[in-house]
Amino acid sequence: MAVDRSLRDAQHIRADLDSLGGSLARVARFQHRFELRTTLPEAESWWRCSDLLANPETFLEWRRRLGAWLLAEHGAQDARTTAGYIMSWYLRVPAYLGALLLHHERRVPSLRPEELAVRIADHGRPEPVGLAALGGSFYCLPLDPGSARPEATVVADERALAAILRARYTAHAARFVRAYGKVSPLGSRMLWAAATDALDTSLWWAGRDGGDEGAGVADAALVLGSRFAPLTSASTLHMGETEAGKGWCRMRESCCFSYLLPQQDECAECPRLRKRAR
């Protein structure tokens, strides 16, 4: 029996919407930090995360580019500052992508380095400006419209989904810590502190970028309700005094080492300041 073409087209559109690619297309409009893609373009500015981790020397070239930019902008650069910036920038790749999809879609991609890619800015400050989720697999809740897809793994509830995000992110971060530790002056404690900062901050940002900061804070509490080693703390988000008045802020676990640049001080939530105050 012939199937009406409009029905076939509707089924095709529905399948696209239910896919991980459909999720990325929907969440892209809620943020302006990154270009989001599901394919890897033939461009030198795009790097598959697994290639970066397999060749840690690539991080040295990235740091050299950052060092040249810092020298031009600030008249100086420091090895710890370049290492700190690249550390935070890289960890933001799996953290923000995972946080964005959890917040808006209640989905978690695999976050394997082989299935993620990052685009580094060609000009100016060499920071990540694009993210790509190259695999189609994802974890979701039972009522997710794509839960019957072969690439979907269904979990029982939001708490289980949060645990999946934490586990998938931590697995990616562990590979980064091993690779980056070979070429960085920063120790594993600092790298895991930065991994904790990236996840906590990204969950917060996902809510704030989408217009519901409180929901982002709630997601951070759900995923980081306590310390899960090797991550270094539970969520540190709290109400406090900010430049704009009372609002949400967080205590950093890691240091970006910006204070080593001329005429720069520690960040307001820098752990160095807390140590000094004790």
UniProtKB/TrEMBL annotation:
GO molecular function (one): 2 iron, 2 sulfur cluster binding
InterPro entries associated with the record: FhuF_C
Protein name per UniProt: Ferric iron reductase protein FhuF, involved in iron transport
Organism from which the protein derives: Prauserella marina
Taxonomic classification: Bacteria, Bacillati, Actinomycetota, Actinomycetes, Pseudonocardiales
